[in-house]
Design brief:
The complex is a heterodimer. In chain A, 39% of the residues lie in helices and 17% in strands. By secondary structure, chain A is α/β, with parallel strands linked by helices. The mean pLDDT of chain A is 96. Classes of the chains: A alpha/beta, B alpha+beta. Bound molecules: pyridoxal-5'-phosphate.
Chain lengths: 407, 148
């Protein structure tokens, strides 16, 4: 059990209090995007109502205030990830852009035909496609760590897959399709023993658990704000300072330069070097507010509540006949992918929606995972700490109604 | 739940469970692949044209109940029709799904598909096989279409 007062927490999320098709909304699509607490919404609107100006380029008061708020949020992200320095935090549009940045600015200059990039079978398309593009550009090869029937990484041959040709290991900390928590810390240690740099895709980890990049000892860590109660369109890249320093810029433009002439442009220092153009200032401020909110609730409390929900929901679903959970790793975040026998997931989604239960159906941007299980799609319920036990009952009820309809 | 019962009514459920003309046509002279990437519906439509008459039409594949039933009903409705008649039927089906006035005589049994009009996210499921048969007839080589 957790120490959270769920009703008080739910009061922070105005969107949860509505009816869908005559039923109370039961929002179980948190792995796609989370809802936003009033504290985040207020921080964004307060910024636009009182402080809006461009950053890093004005002497006037509003510009200074905006700049201070923007940089203060960077400090929160640094602390949130336990990075050494604010210079190691680069704001991006999200996890996707951060992975592309590392692929193009860090890995690409080092790659030669025949080199290898190591990912896993569990990855989100965001951690597959940027590497495939890179392989096409350079003639490098994509290697894939296989998975097991329970949805875990199959690390039997992991040591052999780390070769002198491997230029990066890029893996997700938590699988979005199945919820599997991967043993990234020991994988990072093994890669480092062979001097292979490691990128961790933390998009599904940061909303649910304490992340410490120093303890993980990863070289890059990426995440998206919108999955952790912040606005869409903002995320961050953590990178080791010496690596970021040595990398060429990803995009050119304003803010990322010290001086420009037609003969020579001198790039700005970290982190500005990687933040060309006017950034999503309101998003950054919203992200800072989301981190404050998570700290206020307590990340350990969040993890405990979600674990509690996962256990109850798993037990209740397992007790139903004709329902199979896909992904049964012992270490999981609060994600349950499932199949109802004889009912296509897309029909499941529609029938659930008619009862106010919002889940995701489809391939979850992880088509290789679907292919592994030889299924076109799954239905996926994913929980946040603001979900209640009553909502699990609504989920179970929706499954039973679906089975009745298709009986 | 009443819209839902309308959508998943007996005819749909029956065609989903026991799809008609669910087979290959070996002498098919037109064929197309249809793909709805959003939900993973995938089907192949086979057509055997004699002049401008649809001598035989069938499908294979997998998908949600709506896409399977729609494809099954489609094969029943189009068999023996001319291309022109098929076109007229397709237009009626399309109108029924978008809530426009339809000709009930032409639509016949296909009226059950109009239930999707209350479910905009599902219209693509119901139209997949129709788009695919259209592409098959229009093209003389194997063609792939996608509804995204
Ligand atoms: C594991 C994982 N990685 C990356 C992403 C991409 O995140 P975004 O689309 O916010 O860039 C997601 C989002 O679904 C994800 O779940």
């Amino acid at each position: 059990m957790s120490n959270l007062n769920i009703n008080a927490i739910r009061a922070d999320f105005p969107i949860l209090h509505q009816e869908i098709n005559g039923y109370p909304l039961v929002y179980l699509d948190n792995a796609a995007t989370s809802q936003k607490p009033r504290q985040v919404i207020d921080a964004v609107s307060h910024y636009y109502l009182h402080d809006n100006a461009n950053i890093h380029r004005g002497v006037h008061k509003l510009s200074q205030r905006s700049t201070d708020m923007y940089e203060a949020a960077r400090g929160k992200v640094r602390q949130f990830l336990n990075a050494n320095s604010d210079k190691e935090i680069i704001f991006t549009r999200g996890a996707t852009e951060a992975i592309n940045l590392v692929a193009q600015s860090f890995v690409r200059p080092k790659l030669q035909a025949g080199d290898e990039i190591l990912i896993s079978h569990l990855e989100h398309h965001a951690n597959i496609v940027p590497w495939q593009i890179l392989c096409e550009q350079t003639g490098a090869q994509l290697k894939v760590i296989p998975m097991t029937q329970s949805g875990e990484l199959d690390l039997t041959d992991f040591d052999e897959m780390l070769t002198e040709r491997t230029k990066i290991l890029a893996i997700g900390q938590v699988s979005n399709a199945l919820g599997t928590i991967n043993p990234v810390k020991s994988m990072i240690a093994k890669a480092h023993a062979k001097d292979i740099p490691v990128l961790i895709d933390g998009a599904q980890a940061v909303p649910h658990m304490t992340v410490d990049v120093k303890d993980l000892d990863c070289d890059f860590y990426v995440f998206s704000g919108h999955k952790m109660f912040a606005p869409t369109g903002i995320g961050a890249l953590y990178g080791r300072e010496e690596l970021l320093n040595a990398m060429p810029p990803y995009q050119g433009g304003g803010d990322m330069i010290l001086s420009v002439s037609f003969e020579k442009t001198i790039y700005n220092e970290l982190p500005a070097k990687f933040e060309a153009g006017t950034p999503h200032i309101a998003g950054v401020i919203g992200l800072g507010a989301a981190i404050d909110y998570m700290w206020q609730i307590g990340i350990d409390n969040i993890a405990a509540q979600e674990h509690h929900l996962l256990e109850i929901a798993t037990r209740k679903i397992e007790a139903l006949s004709g329902v199979t959970i896909i992904g049964t790793a012992p270490e999981k975040a609060a994600v349950i992918s499932f199949m109802i026998e004889g009912v296509h997931p897309h029909d499941v989604g529609t029938i659930f929606d008619q009862q106010g239960v919002a889940i995701r159906t489809g391939h979850h941007c992880a088509q290789p995972v679907m292919e592994f299980y030889d299924i076109p799609a799954t239905a996926r319920a994913s929980f946040a700490f603001y979900n209640s036990e009553e909502e699990i009952d609504a989920l179970i009820n929706a499954i039973q109604k679906t089975q009745e309809l298709f009986a | 739940m009443s819209d839902l019962r309308e959508l998943y009514q007996q005819v749909i459920m029956d065609h989903n469970k026991r799809p008609r003309n669910f087979r290959e046509i070996e002498q098919a002279n037109h064929l197309a692949h249809g793909n709805n990437p959003l939900c993973g519906d995938k089907l192949v439509v086979y057509v055997k044209l004699e002049g401008d008459v649809i001598e035989d039409v069938s499908f294979k594949g997998s998908g949600c109940a709506i896409s399977m039933a729609s494809a099954s009903l489609m094969t029943e409705a189009l068999k023996g029709k001319t291309i022109e008649e098929a076109q007229a039927i397709y237009e009626q089906v399309h109108k029924s799904m978008t809530g426009e006035e339809t000709d009930r005589n032409l639509l016949g049994k296909l009226e059950v598909l109009s239930g999707v009009k209350e479910f905009p996210a599902r219209v693509k499921c119901a139209t997949l096989s129709w788009h695919t048969v259209h592409a098959a007839i229009d093209s003389d080589h194997d063609i792939s279409i996608s509804t995204e």
